[in-house]
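Quick start: read one record
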Amino acid sequence: MHDGWVYGAGVAVGTEMVVATADSSQYRDSGYGETITAFDRETGDVRRNYAIYNFHPITIPPILVEGAIFFATSPIDGLAVLGDVPAEG
């Protein structure tokens, strides 16, 4: 379970996951601030977690597409992705 803040401006809800921009106490003293965290929709367990270094602002909030999480922060010159989009068959 997550014990930090979750920010309403960066929430995406899918059929299996809920993705949020969150505060993570485990990174607070290391220069990392917000995280993009994916929680299992049924259990609330953390399924993916990406810490954003040096509190860079999120410029595109998380977008959930078939299990992949797309987002952007100020130092990224494009769209970042966590996970893979399934190949079409």
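The mean pLDDT is 77.
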